[in-house]
Structures are given as structure tokens and as C-alpha cells.
Design a protein that fits this description.
The protein is an alpha/beta fold. Helix content is about 50%, strand content about 10%.
Length: about 325
């Protein structure tokens, strides 16, 4: 998921930037969240407090600007850290200016009212910061806290932390999947075609399996149409979606068919930990097991043989 580049235009290097106060959550909640995200293939930036002070702020602020999502973990001691408040101010200002990173706050052992400064919890820390950093800096940091407090996030206090972390990681995966597949440039009439396909799929009409085939001569926009339908519908499936492209070329040889099966099984279960299949029948069984109790969306592009359809999605 990471993209790197040389000098010039800025490129996104991180999926997620974690903003947290080390003594509060580094070795507990934040560590568990970080390891879970990394295990799911999410490229996360976790600040190292061992960096030299002179280099640290530039490194931190650059990482903020190179991230798609920022997750501030708002703990009771968060506002006591000038580093945390600098990060948060940078995040909110960039979000307002260029629309990224997206902000997903976690209210760890505080309430949104604390972050809105309606209680004394953060106010006492801000008063201390004002004495050292000045009134303008305090106003900037107060504004950042106020903006984040208005965003719907997760409240952890009184809940099972493992369950909350699963929800957070699922949401991050969902957002990254949708954003990784930008809409193709739409050609004339494609909106009506998308609507027609969505009507055929009728995803809100209860249970059952629906197959819709899009066929025709090469170059008429079948893949563009499929991608646009996929992006329109993905939000309805809680991230349980898979778009597998260029199947005709990718499936040459039995080993490559098993690789496609593994990709599909991984996509619809939101897991990077999928076993290697001994044969394609094992792959069919695994996909069936993973999909049978879920609502999933699967798009198979450039599919030219019925045998491949059976090997990827069974009956």
C-alpha cells in the first residue's frame, strides 16, 4: 500500500499516522492497534520517542503530510504533550487545506466533552502550554482539539479493547480499499449503464446470490463499467469486496489459478493470513466457507471461461 517517490511532488508513504502520548498507551492499546494494522498489511507510522529532538519535529510533520489517515488516540494525558498538540494542529490544518489526511479519532479514556474543553481536564494543560509557548499557540491547539472533538470516532472506556481495535482496523481497511480504486474517467452514457447494472444486482432485496455478466467486443468499456459499479456498491458491503482484474492473462497455469483464489479469499475475509491451497478444489472450499455467512461483492474482470468462474466462486 505504500508509495514512495523522489524529490518533487509529494507522494503518500503511509496509510495511517498514529498520534498518541507514549506514557499513556504506547505499550498497551497503541501497540496492539499498531501490530494488528501491520498484520493486515496496513502501512502505519508510529512515532519513535528515541529520535533526536532536533530531527524529530520535521520527521513527524512530514509523516503527517504523507499519510492518508490520521488516528489520534486521545488519552487523559494527551494534551500535556506539546508534540501531540503540534501533530494534531498539523493534521487538522492539512485536512482543511487539502482534504487529507482523513481523521478517525479514538477517545481512549476521555469523553468528547473533555476534548471540546468543556471540562477542566485539558484546560489545565493548555494553560501551562500558554506560559511556555504563548497565547497564539494555545489558540491554535485549542482549535485543533475542537475540530477533532466534532468528528465521530470510537469511545473505548468501558468497552473491550480488542473488539474496538477490530472495528477500527476494519474501518481503515474499508476506507483504504475504496480509495485505492479510483473511478475511471466516465464515458458518455456510463451513468445510465451503472444504474442498470445496480438495478439488476438489487443489493437491498434480502438474501441470495446474484450473477450479472457484462459481455461484448473488446474496447467498448466493459472494464470501466465494472470498476464504476464496484466503486458505487463497495460502501454497501462493509469492505467485504474483491475486484480481480485481467483474469485471462493471470490464470494461465493451475498455480496462478490458486493464486487468484487466494487473493479472493483474502479480500472477502479482510485477512492477509490465508493458507496456500494444495489444489483448486481446496480453494473453492475456502472461498465458499469464508463467503457463506457474509454479504460480499466480487467482480471478476476479463473472464473468458466458465471453468474459471467455477474455480473462483463455485456455484
Amino acid at each position: 500500500m505504500a508509495a514512495t517517490g523522489g524529490s518533487g511532488a509529494s507522494t503518500t508513504q503511509y496509510d495511517v499516522f498514529l498520534s498518541f502520548r507514549g506514557p499513556d498507551t504506547r505499550n498497551t492499546f497503541t501497540d496492539y492497534l499498531y501490530r494488528t494494522m501491520v498484520g493486515q498489511g496496513i502501512v502505519a507510522y508510529r512515532d519513535s520517542e528515541e529520535l533526536h529532538a532536533g530531527d524529530r519535529i520535521d520527521d513527524l510533520l512530514r509523516a503527517v503530510g504523507e499519510s492518508k489517515i490520521c488516528i489520534p488516540i486521545l488519552s487523559r494525558g494527551y494534551a500535556s504533550s506539546a508534540w501531540c498538540l503540534r501533530e494534531l494542529a498539523r493534521v487538522t490544518e492539512l485536512h482543511e487545506l487539502i482534504g487529507k489526511p482523513e481523521i478517525l479519532p479514538i477517545f481512549f479514556d476521555v469523553a468528547p466533552t473533555d476534548v471540546k474543553l468543556r471540562t477542566k481536564l485539558y484546560l489545565k494543560d493548555l494553560k501551562k502550554h500558554e506560559q511556555r509557548h504563548g497565547a497564539k499557540m494555545r489558540q491554535r491547539w485549542e482549535a485543533a482539539l475542537g475540530k477533532v472533538a466534532e468528528i465521530k470516532g470510537w469511545e473505548v472506556q468501558g468497552k473491550a479493547q480488542g473488539e474496538v481495535i477490530e472495528l477500527i482496523v476494519k474501518e481503515v481497511l474499508h476506507k483504504l480499499k475504496v480509495k485505492q480504486r479510483p473511478l475511471d474517467n466516465k464515458s458518455v452514457g456510463v451513468d445510465k449503464q451503472v444504474e442498470a447494472i445496480m438495478d439488476l444486482l438489487d443489493v437491498d432485496s434480502g438474501t441470495g446470490v446474484r450473477f450479472v455478466g457484462i459481455y461484448g467486443m473488446g474496447g467498448i468499456g466493459k472494464t470501466t463499467l465494472a470498476k464504476n459499479v464496484f466503486n458505487e456498491l463497495c460502501l454497501h458491503f462493509d469492505g467485504q469486496c474483491s475486484f480481480i482484474g485481467n483474469i485471462r492473462e493471470s490464470s494461465k497455469g493451475n498455480g496462478l489459478v490458486k493464486s487468484l483464489q487466494k487473493q479472493l479469499a483474502s479480500d472477502i475475509s479482510d485477512s492477509r493470513f490465508v493458507e496456500n491451497f494444495g489444489n483448486t478444489d481446496e480453494g473453492i472450499d475456502s472461498i465458499t466457507r469464508r463467503a457463506s455467512s457474509k454479504k460480499v461483492l466480487i467482480v471478476l474482470d476479463d473472464l473468458d471461461k466458465k471453468e474459471l468462474l467455477k474455480k473462483l466462486v463455485g456455484a
